[in-house]
Design a protein that fits this description.
Rossmann fold, alpha/beta, 16% strand, six-stranded antiparallel sheet
């Protein structure tokens, strides 16, 4: 993969070579195998390439087509190469030397602004058309690669990461207060609420599945992919036909991601998603006498499991069954001894260029990426998005769908089957379903009456004054965020969340930046555009049937995935189960740092000082896992305060 950047002087003035050099200098922190520049009059394009695929070793970027007057820079891996070879009439012999960027340029020549529609993969690219004096930029369907930009008067700058864009307006770099307010107000791990904004004023991100045209008329952004609107229902005659069609699409999504100059790794858990991906990948790699390197996070040896037996904190017994099924899988179990949620905060802030909220998982997630890179992996697979696609299938979503479609006989049968499978009374299921059936507004009104003192921002550190200033409550209401009343979705409503650009952007930013820093690429077959479209095309009863959740993948992976994983309904993996116990030895240090921060008042404008002060008092005698929300709030505040300090230092030294 690559990182890209560029400057377009829209008024026709010559790009400053000094400004271009400053942008490139800020990208020297990343381990590139080659870098190159295209600088001509009003346009500057740059690319730093990391050799991930065999074709990338001969890739030349930026590339200029003199006949068409087109220049391209791209951060891309294209997965539907065979399809494109057929369309462009490229022979098998010729295809061996065709790079992904050449395919992008061919696509642009043929389809122009519509070209992203015909590309499958992880990409962000910019095409300069010198004849029409316009720049065309695009980001892939699921936002797997980042694309940030700055636009002011007659200057447009873009980059894979944000800090190089500081040079475009060095004297006016400031923070986006609305973004910060949303970040501190969101109850969960999500970083942003406005998909096109960033933490920096004037620096924006191109949303997933969007393209943009920049010329002397300004900027025009177009959304080129809307699967909810355009995907047609798939109707097969039998379950076997659905399974066969699924395996075909899913296997292709896995296999096209195995292109690598070196080793292929995978983040493993004991669940259906990563296990299914691992089995398919291992089988394909075995044909070339290659091995799959697995990496799995497990708790520290001193961990005391205080959770229900339903939750499994150490999933190694399930992963060992994968090794028995596929004898070319090697597994590294990562305990991350000595690491916790405050390890390397400053380094992570520098990596992400902003504060972050994934405090429970980041230390081990990054540890796995580092270990994978050090062991020679260029591609690291995961199945993070699988719950929304390949292993979709929640009973209550299906039950509500049946009710709203008036399929009452089927609904009663499903309730009985689910109750028997889970060994719980039908009355308990009916009670939850009744709650789901009742209109949301009605349930919300009742909840509010019974919980008059409920504070929807009670577990987040944001300053109440900023909530009012930026109209947070009303904006969050549009997406039902930070609500006391649970919202139940039917199958069609849940599909809207599957393709939510906010979720795509959140994942894409984290994975792009961690991977870029380690000279590796993180790839998720369960988030493949074709897999998403296929899963959206299926009827609800392909995902839940006879009370069995995640029905499609359990059926389809028979004989491929070990039954120990495939048929497991009695337990569920719990990653980061030990995150609080890891903090116990150093909590006094953490608490002391935050006390000093609150005392000096450097972030008091942004946070609820009294709430945090009371929170520290509650934890003065030690950590309590029942207060995990409070611990998270304190850690997020600590991360945010470190970011503010880092930002002020960055501005001083610009």
């Amino acid at each position: 993969m690559s990182a890209v950047c560029g400057i377009f002087n829209i008024d026709g003035s010559i790009v400053s070579s000094e400004k271009a050099s400053k942008m490139m200098d800020k990208l020297k922190i990343y381990p590139f195998d080659s870098t190159s520049v295209y600088l001509k009059n009003q346009i500057f394009l740059w690319c730093g390439i990391q050799h991930i695929t065999l074709e990338s070793r001969v890739e030349v970027l930026p590339v200029y087509d003199k006949n068409m007057g087109l220049a391209l820079t791209a951060d891309a891996i294209i997965d539907n190469r065979e399809e494109l070879f057929y369309i462009f009439d490229i022979s098998k012999k010729e295809s061996m030397s065709v790079t992904d960027s050449e395919l992008i340029l061919m696509a642009y020549k043929k389809w122009g602004y519509d070209s992203p529609k015909y590309l499958v993969g992880d990409f962000a690219f910019a095409v300069w058309d010198e004849r029409n004096r316009e720049l065309f930029c695009a980001r892939d369907h699921v936002g797997a690669r980042t694309f940030y930009y700055f636009y002011l008067e007659n200057v447009f700058c873009f980059c894979t990461v944000m800090k190089p864009l500081f040079v475009c307006d060095e004297n006016n770099i400031s923070l986006n207060e609305r973004w910060i307010t949303d970040f501190l107000a969101l109850d969960g791990i999500q970083h942003e609420f406005e998909c096109n904004e960033t933490i920096y004023k004037g620096i924006f991100q191109l949303p997933p599945s969007c393209s943009m045209i920049i010329d002397n008329k300004g900027i025009k952004i177009n959304k080129y992919w809307n699967p909810i609107k355009n995907v047609q229902p798939l109707r097969c005659n039998t379950d076997e036909e659905y399974e066969k069609a699924f395996i075909k699409v899913f296997a292709e999504a896995v296999n096209c991601r195995l292109r690598s100059t070196s080793e292929v790794g995978i983040m493993l858990s004991g669940g259906l998603d990563s296990g299914s991906i691992a089995c398919i990948a291992a089988k394909s790699l075995s044909k070339y006498d290659k091995r799959l390197k697995g990496f799995c996070s497990i708790p520290i040896e001193s961990y005391k499991n205080n959770k229900s037996k339903y939750y499994v904190s150490n999933e190694s017994k399930y992963i060992e069954s994968l090794k028995i099924r596929s004898d070319n899988i090697d597994v590294c179990y990562c305990r991350c001894d000595g690491k916790n949620s405050v390890t390397n905060i400053d380094a992570f802030i520098n990596m992400f260029e902003q504060p972050y909220k994934i405090v429970q998982t980041l230390y081990w997630y990054n540890d796995i990426v580092e270990k994978a890179s050090q062991s020679g992996c260029k591609v690291l697979l995961n199945g993070q998005f699988g719950n929304s696609t390949i292993s979709d299938g929640e009973f209550m979503i299906h039950a509500l769908t049946l009710y709203r479609n008036f399929k009452f006989t089927t609904l009663f049968k499903e309730i009985k089957a689910f109750s028997n499978l889970k060994k719980i009374p039908s009355s308990r299921v009916n009670k939850i379903l009744l709650k789901a059936i009742l209109p949301y507004k009605f349930r919300k009104s009742i909840k509010n009456i019974l919980n008059k003192n409920f504070d929807r921002f009670g577990s987040v550190p944001v300053n109440p004054n900023l909530i009012k200033k930026w109209n947070v409550a009303q904006r969050f209401d549009k997406k039902f965020y930070n609500q006391l009343t649970e919202r139940f979705l039917d199958y069609y409503e849940s599909q809207e969340y599957t393709v939510d650009p906010l979720a795509f952007s959140h994942i894409g930013a984290i994975e792009t930046k961690i991977a870029l820093a380690n000279g590796i690429i993180i790839r998720d077959p369960s988030k493949d555009k074709r897999v998403i479209e296929f899963c959206l095309s299926l009827p609800s009863d392909q995902f839940v049937r006879n009370g069995q959740e995640r029905y499609l993948i359990r059926r389809s992976m028979k004989g491929i995935l070990p039954d120990k994983i495939r048929l497991n309904v009695s337990t569920r993996g719990l990653q980061s189960a030990d995150w609080i116990q890891r903090l116990e030895p150093i909590w006094k240090v953490v608490s002391s740092e935050l006390e000093n921060i609150l005392e000096h008042g450097e972030i008091n404008y942004y946070i609820d000082h009294d709430k945090l002060e009371k929170g520290l008092i509650q934890l003065r005698d030690g950590l309590d896992e029942k207060k995990s929300d409070l611990i998270r709030m304190i850690l997020i505040t600590l991360v945010f305060s470190r970011f503010i300090r880092s930002f002020h230092n960055d501005v001083i030294y610009l």
